[in-house]
Each structure stands twice: as C-alpha cells, then as structure tokens.
Write a structure and sequence with these properties.
Layout (H helix, E strand, L loop, with lengths): L1 H26 L8 H10 L4 H8 L7 H13 L3 H29 L4 H14 L1 H7 L5 H19 L5 H21 L1 H16 L3 H20 L1 H4 L13 H12 L3 H19 L23 H4 L2 H15 L14 H13 L5 H21 L19 H8 L5 E2 L3 H13 L13 H8 L7 E7 L2 H17 L2 E6 L6 E8 L6
Parallel strand pairs: 1-2
Antiparallel strand pairs: 2-4, 3-4
C-alpha cells in the first residue's frame, strides 16, 4: 500500500490539484472586463482581412505572430472576448505541459527523482500566481511561454548526445523554428535568444548559436518594417527606469502578495532543511555520498535549463533600461520556462529525512492554499481592489451606456471596442452611435443646435481617470451644461451626465 501510494497516490493528488487550478481559471475566463491591452488586441487582431491586419500591426510595438494566430482563431471560432481568452488558456496549458516534461527530462539527466520533480514542476506551472495570471490573458504572454518552452526543450536535446543523425537534424530545425516563433511573438523572445546565441557562440557551440541568429532574422526584418513606429520618441514612453519597485512587483507576480516575507521564509526553510532536514551522509550539495553519480551531460543544469541565457538577457535588459526603458514586470514571464524546471529539479533532488519531509509538506501545502486565493486576485471580480484587470472596467460602462447617444470619452477607441465585444457576447444591442473623442466633442459643441444631453465616460484608476475626464467636462460646462456623476457605482468606472442648462448667449 505504501509503495502504491508513493508511486501513484502523490501523482494523482498533484494532477487533481493542478486540474482544479486550471478549471478555476477557465471558469473565470469571462468574469472580468477586457482591460485596455486586451481591447487593443481585439482592435489589432479582429480585422476583416489579413492585409488589414498587417497594415494595422505596422503601427504597433509588438511583432505579428500572436495577432496572426488570434486572427486565424477568430476566423474559425468567432471574434469575441471569450474566444480571445480561451485561446490563451489552451496555449498556456500546452506550454505548462512542455515545462513539466522539460523538468522530468532534466531530472533524468542529472539523476534526480523524476516523480518528485514532475510533481513540483506541475504545481509551480499550474498553481503559482505568475502563470495563472497570464493563463487567461488576451495578450501574447501564454504563447510566448509556449514557444520559449519548446525552444529550450529542443536546445536541451541538442546539448545531449543525439540518438541519430536524423534526430539531430530534426532537433536542430525545430529549435530554429521555435526560436523564430518566440522572437516574432514578443520582442523579449528576440532579446532572450539573442542572449542564447551569444552564450552558445561563447561556448564555441557554433551551430547552435548560428541557427539562433538565423532564426532571429525575421524578427529583425519586422523591426525594419515597423521602424517608423517603433523608434518614435513616444513609443514605450510609459516605461520607467528600473528601480526596487520593479523588482518587488515582479516578485509579487511570482509569489503573490507580500513577496519579500515569502522569499525570506523560503530562504529560512532551505537553511533549516540544510541543517536538520537532510539525510545523514549528504555532501555539501545535498547528494547522498553513496549514491551513484549521474551520467555526464553536455552542460550544467543552469545551461541545459536555459537559465544562463535568461540571466544574461535579464541583465542586458535592465542595463539598457537605464538609458532606454525596456523592463516591465509582465514581460519577465519569458523567464518561466527556464526558472520553473530548474527549481523543480533542485527541490526534487533534495534528500530529506522524516523531519525534512514533514516540514516540506507543511510549507508546500501552505503555499498551495495561499495560491488558491492569491493567484486569481487580478482576474476574479469582487475579491480585492485589484479584482478588475489592471484597474479597467470597460464592460460596466458599455452595458450602462448601451443605446445612448452623444457619448464621448478620452478613451473612445477602447470604449468602441468594448461595445463591440459586448454586442458579440449578446449582452447588449448594437448602439445607434459610436463613442467620440475630445476632437469630435469639440466639433459637436460648435454645431447647432446643441444636444440637450451629453454623456462623458472613461475607465481606469480613479486619479488618472479624473485627469482624463476633467478637460472634456470643462469644455462641456463652458457651453452651458451641468455635469453630474451617473452610471454604475463601481471601481474604475466614471460616467458623467451633462445636461444643457443654458445655451451660450441664451
């Protein structure tokens, strides 16, 4: 019975836990409004033709693969918010499986318990906050994780002895192909594999570095194609120089709220396990002295997992960001396919005594329990102040303003896209008029007769939302309107009902 539990019971529990997390994410796929970046994905991808798609993407800060996939997906299953996010959920599921399998392969290569490693990798992949947060995000991150994970998979195989010439050629081509896809999905994919190419060439792995360089050419060509937009002074102007807040925010995305105390506790746990929780007879690295050494592999665990190139990319991006800001916490999701397998192998290789196993089980259970609540904070409405994604709630405004005319807002394009998604979902009827921006509002106020009622609305954090709305409201009030708050009493929504009291000169 004990042997059966060790062989099948633990794995079954892990599968059930991971399935519960994945199912919870799926059930929340349409629980919150599309936020601004997701609405931009809608505006870019849901084009009437592929030519229109390419024309749109020429004026964007991202390469084309993700938006092309979304366009093809939308042509097949429908262009709406639900299908947009489900696509990411499917992509991340595939990427998660790749990371788990990569962890198992590395464990086998280094003589580490494959069962423990697979279980730990699965829990990290499917339960921790960073992966869950982007599992149902209508952005490119899930596909970036998938393609990077596949690239590290093929690179590891190339660094190990090939079974045959045919197998080597296959792995070589697939590595190049997945590197190309990653670089054309997000520019952090380009940065990552440029670092990998430099590292492999430094290690005199000429073919490995060479194929990566060749695979990056399409992404570089795309940069040239979209250079007029990419190299404008205003592009990426919202990014700031790296600081401690960036580090803390990135850590919070990985560990959940209060990341620094959690990190300290994890370090303390490792120290306790090292002092009291290891089996007697372990060497300084935690390996049993009498255990047979694993077969030699071509490269260290840091190298085979992709962590060395990932670290080089991270250092380069942070360094460059002091001159031209490039670093942002969401983008570091690109590190997951190297970090998770490394952590899983390292933790799975710990040889623990009964005290160590009991302590590790308690801590792991506590983390899973915390993550069940914390991993969904950004995608579950009503649970905290961050329950609406990135502090946007365009859906509520679209639903309240459905059917109304004379609608204006500083984020009119996003409001029109939100209306489109709500119509596609069957939650509202198509509105008789589109949202107008500040320029259209000015033209309307110069026309005659003036409308008796004007609506102003926006979504976002309270302070920035008011900063955007106030100039429009001032224009309206100078023309004889009285503006009062109206609409849904929800966070991140602002609706002003402006009634004509006295026309100018009247």
């Amino acid at each position: 019975m004990k042997l059966f539990w060790r062989r099948f019971g633990v794995g079954s529990v892990v599968i059930l836990v991971c399935a519960a997390f994945a199912l919870k994410a799926l059930l929340l796929v349409d629980a919150t409004s599309l936020w601004s970046d997701e609405l931009y994905s809608v505006g870019k991808s849901f084009q009437p033709s592929f030519r229109a798609l390419l024309a749109m993407l020429r004026n964007d800060t991202h390469p084309p693969v993700y938006y092309t996939i979304v366009w093809l997906w939308g042509q097949s299953v429908g262009q709406n918010a639900l299908t947009l996010r489900i696509l990411s959920w499917l992509a991340y599921g595939l990427g998660g499986v790749v990371m788990v399998l990569q962890s198992g392969a590395l464990a086998q290569a280094f003589g580490v318990s494959r069962g423990r490693t697979l279980s730990l990798a699965a829990l990290l992949v499917f339960c921790s906050p960073f992966p869950v947060r982007f599992a149902i995000e209508g952005k490119s991150y899930a596909f970036l994780v998938l393609f990077v994970g596949l690239a590290w998979w093929w690179r590891r195989r190339l660094l190990q002895p090939a079974a045959s010439r045919t197998a080597f050629v296959r792995d070589f081509l697939f590595y190049g192909f997945t590197v190309c896809l990653a670089a054309l999905t997000h520019f952090y994919g380009l940065f990552l594999f440029a670092a990998a190419a430099v590292w492999d060439i430094w290690q005199q792995r000429w073919r490995l570095g060479g194929i990566a360089i060749v695979a990056l050419v399409p992404a570089i060509a795309w940069i040239a194609y979209a250079a007029a937009y990419l190299f404008r002074d205003s592009t990426g102007g919202w990014l700031a120089q790296p600081d401690f807040a960036l580090f803390e925010e990135t850590l919070a995305r990985a560990l959940g709220p209060w990341p620094l105390p959690k990190l300290v506790l994890f370090v303390l746990l490792m120290l306790v396990l090292r002092r009291w929780g290891r089996l007697a007879g372990n060497d300084d690295e935690g390996h049993l002295l009498e255990a047979p050494r694993p077969a030699l592999v071509a490269g260290s665990l840091l190298d085979l997992s992709g962590l060395i190139p990932s670290a080089l990319m991270l250092l380069a991006v942070v360094a460059v960001s002091f001159l031209k800001p490039l670093a942002f916490s969401r983008y570091f999701v690109v590190l997951l396919p190297s970090v998770i397998p490394l952590l899983a192998v390292q933790l799975g290789g710990l040889q623990l005594n009964s005290i160590g196993r009991a302590l590790a089980l308690v801590v792991l259970t506590a983390f899973i329990a915390l993550w069940w609540q914390q991993s969904y904070l950004g995608i579950q409405p009503g649970v905290s102040s961050v329950g609406d994604r990135e502090q946007d709630n365009f859906r509520a405004i679209s639903q309240f303003m459905a059917g109304k005319q004379e609608r204006y807002g500083p984020r009119s394009r996003l409001l029109n896209l939100s209306d489109r998604m709500e119509v596609e979902a069957g939650r509202i009827l198509e509105s008789p008029s589109l949202w107008g921006d500040g320029d259209l509002l000015e033209k309307r106020l110069e026309s005659s007769p003036l409308p008796s009622l004007i609506w102003l609305a926006s979504s976002g954090p309270e302070q920035s939302m008011r900063r955007r709305l106030n100039p429009l409201m001032q224009r309206v009030e100078t023309r004889g309107y009285e503006c009062r708050e109206d609409g849904p009493k929800l966070d991140y929504t602002g609706v002003m009902r402006c009634t004509l009291i006295k026309a100018p000169g009247g």
